[in-house]
Amino acid sequence: MDTTIPDENVVRIAVDLACRAPSVHNSQPWQWTYADGQLDLYTERGRLLASTDPSGRQLVVSCGAALNHLQTALTGLKWSVDIRRVPEGPHSGHLATIRFRHDARPQSHDFDLLAAIRHRYSDRRPFGPISVKTPLPTALTDVAHRTDVHLTLLGRDARPTLAKATELTAAARKYDSAYQAELHWWAGHSIPQGGIPADSLATAENRDRVDIGRRFPAGRDNNASAEIDRSTVLVLSTDSDGRDAWLRAGEALSAVLLEATVSGLATCPLTHTTELRQSREMIRELLPDGGFPQALIRVGTAEKKSPPRQTPRRPVESVFSIGRRHSAR
Questions:
Q1: Torsions phi, psi of 27, nearest 5?
Q2: Rounded CA gap, 273 and 265, in Å?
Q3: How far apart, in whole angstroms, are the C-alpha atoms of residue 297 and residue 283?
Q4: Interior CA angle at 131 toward 205 and 140, to 5°?
């Protein structure tokens, strides 16, 4: 047995955990191929949200989150990775080539992060504030910076701008029939291999208490303790705005979410305010060094609440193949 190459079952386990990553509307737009000791990550173009995400930016960010989940899982399994990002150029659906080294020495925190993959979920209800009892992890900025991504913590004075950007986005999409049809296809009813079921969506009352959330269809999750959302908002931004930057932003998104989960904080990624040019520029003006905002994250506390139902995942067999290469998508 070649100890420099992981067993196929080890890779399968890691990919299965990677696919717990968050993705836009839980679309899970990824495919993985393993052959000759090399794992490749591709986009699944059939799961592109054409009205929400015509450029495919959020699709790539979603795949980046899965890539970081994969690294986290493999570390816990004692494997390190060497990653070549966007190996076939900026227009290819081939996002990453992963090679393995059996030299990882996971520490206790690495196992905490591994456990967080299973425990993390997107909570769309209002949050209580972070506090001395439940502070933000001090390592978040460094965690994002490892992937060349900037993390900005926005103060309360930015909240009116965030709410205005949300209102602007909602108004622009209100009568967009293609967007609304796409949103209601992916959210609010049961799709066995993806989407956001009603039990994972906040009720209309709780949804309206979050002034900076995407306006999803009303759901059945009414178990909230906060009267209004008092979350802290983080922004992930990059110096450039191409596929490599999008992929790295997704990696940083995953890393920040897992660190926050380990610390007992509730999280919800937000991308609606970076979908349209005007609202994205509003977010960009909040950043100290400019850059391109890729995703926002609400972070807060969710005491005395049971978690929402976790969203369904595609069977690993439908996203993972062994022994053959995919052509670039």
A1: -80, -20
A2: 23
A3: 13
A4: 100
Q: What angle is formed at CA 242 by the lines to CA 252 and CA 139, rounded to 5 degrees?
A: 15
Task: Write down the residue that tokens 């209002």 correspond to.
Answer: 126
- The type of residue at 301 is T
3-class secondary-structure state, position 291: coil
Q: Pairing relation of β-strands 320-322 and 30-35?
A: parallel
Token pair for 50: 């054409």
3 state DSSP class of 206: helix
pLDDT 10s digits, 143-155: 999 999 999 999 9
Say if residues 319 and 144 touch (Cβ distance below 8 Å). no
What angle separates helix 277-284 from helix 159-173, to the nearest 10 degrees?
Answer: 170
Cα–Cα distance for residue pair 225/36, rounded to 1 Å: 51
54's tokens? 């015509």
Q: What predicted TM-score, i.e. pTM, was given to this entire model? A: 0.95
Residue 219 forms beta bridges with which residues? Answer: none
Distance CA 46, CA 194 (A): 13
216-240 confidence digits (pLDDT tens): 999 998 877 678 999 999 999 999 9
What letters, b where the CB count within 10 A reaches 16 and e where it falls short, cover 15-52?
A: bbbbbbbbbbbbbbbbbbbbeeeebbbbbbeebbbebb
Q: How far is it, in rounded angstroms, from Cα 6 to Cα 70?
A: 13
Residue-range domains of the chain with CATH: 8-119 (3.40.109.30), 138-300 (3.40.109.10)
Dihedral sign for Cα 212, 266, 319, 98, please.
positive
Sign of torsion over alpha carbons 281, 287, 291, 294: negative
- C-beta atoms surrounding 135 within 10 Å: 10
